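Re: beginner question about structure tokens

> Can someone show what the tokenized structure looks like for a real chain? I only ever see the sequence side.

Sure, here's an example I had lying around. Input first:
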Amino acid sequence: MSEPNADPEHILDDLLTGRRRILELTRSLTSAEPHSFLPLLADEDRSSPYDLDGLDDDEREQVRRGALLVLADDFVDEAEWGGDNITVGFRRTDTFSDDFEELVKLISAHYGEAVENTDELRCSDSGKAAYWRAGESTLVLQVFENYPGGNIELHLWLAAIADQA
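And the corresponding structure tokens:
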């Protein structure tokens, strides 16, 4: 059996064009066979979010069961945005935040207002997440922002977390 969404798909532009596409995607995530996963970060040496070998105890606590899709990611090196170009990093961070807000509106149009929850798919220095009930799953949309070593690491993830039996 192959892993669902093992390779990141970068389909954000397509999703932001309308509600129908986001509904197709959320339905495919909620109907996928659940697998254990942990979203990948730039400095990790894993082949996919579903490859859990070598995780430490803190990372193992963040493992979820369901299906994950990477909507977008970016890594801004400190040399690229430091000094005279400091606004470069902020503009790219703002773009991810704006895309997150637009997707929240699109998903909420079908699933209702996002529910309160502070449990991120992956703990971040900064960022935010939104949650919706979708049948026997919880949809999670997270914009992840980390600042490792003066760099900026950005991810936008959409996941369906299966209810625990």
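Each token stands for a local structural state, so reading them left to right follows the chain. The chain has one domain: 12-162.
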